[in-house]
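Please predict the structure of the following assembly.
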Amino acid sequence: MREEFRLLIALQDLDIMIREAREQHTSDQYRDMGFKLTGLEELQEARKKLAAKIPTALRNRYEKLAAHFKLAIIPVTGDKCLGCFVKLPTSFFSSAYSSELLTCESCGRLLYIP
Ligand SMILES: [Zn+2]
């Protein structure tokens, strides 16, 4: 797998963690229970550093998708996009594409072959 994909997936993981940390911060339920939640700033700092390593064009594509979808980059397993469950064209699975970052024509999510 190409380094860029790996970085992008790591960025997505961080975004999920940041989202969860934020939700917990704003949840009265957790506060009332006496949960002390820290680490949000550390996560954001780590995200900034990671994002700087990703080529701008790719990062922009990801950011745009991430604004719409919970998961912007997803692995292809089987013959369907796991984002929208539309069958992918067989050309996706030819070896020529296996090292490329693909786009689902139906939902626009980024797909990679693990
Ligand atoms: Zn899709």
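The longest strand covers residues 73-75. The pocket of zinc ion is lined by residues 81, 83-84, 86, 104, 106-107, 109 (CB under 6 Å).
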